[in-house]
Amino acid sequence: MQRVVLVQPSVYGFDNQCLLDALAELGDSARGVAVAPRDVSEAQLKVWHAAGVRAIRVNLQSSGNEDVASACNELSYWSERVCHLGWSIQLYMAYPVLQAVSTHLSRLPGSFVLDHFAMVPFSAAASQDDGLLLRLAESGRIFVKLSAPYRLADAQWARAWARHLVSHAPHGILWGSDWPHTARDAGVPALEPSQFRTVPTQTIQQDMGHWLMDDDEQQQVLVKNPARLFGWASG
């Protein structure tokens, strides 16, 4: 890989030091997605920007927060805080919450990434729902990330759903490995580690081959889209 995007994992909370150390070691070949408290200063955001951070992660799913008003508030707040930096906002939320906030989301400035297939449930995927994800992906500002099918209730349909999105909106799709495949054991607090999932590299490669079926799709999703979103000069 010539370029990578590193995402702050939930278990580290607001402590982004590991992310920042990795960005310092990797240099311009890497970009970061940080997690920040609401009271993070503008000066700190600029320090992170200089270090290679290009997005903020808003994680409602890990805490089980499905309050729509809270989600709208978070979206508005972080859009105002980071849009002027050219950053995107990565969203990890339950699909019903996304459905409820989609209109609000579409009206906000900036770019957004919907993590882990946007957590779309099997029932919605089987019927293509009402086309919500496709409309969002076609907007040019909202990206669906194909990653971690094992986080969904039923991963068997992931190939067909990925093909549906890539074939209709290739400019609105990203890919992520979800390495090192973090998990949350039952009863373990949010900031305490659990055992990683065991996901063979071959499985990840097979998924990519099923989801991105030719050179053009791979170039668009793996190179051009992240280059545009995370601030590299070109794909």
From TrEMBL:
InterPro entries: Amidohydro-rel (IPR006680), Aro_Compnd_Degr_Hydrolases (IPR052358), Metal_Hydrolase (IPR032466)
Keyword Hydrolase among UniProt keywords: yes
Keywords: Hydrolase
Catalytic class of the enzyme: hydrolase
Keyword Phosphoprotein assigned: no
GO function terms (MF aspect): 2-pyrone-4,6-dicarboxylate lactonase activity
E.C. no: 3.1.1.57
Domain Amidohydrolase-related: 2-231
Full protein name: 2-pyrone-4,6-dicarbaxylate hydrolase
Originating species: Comamonas brasiliensis
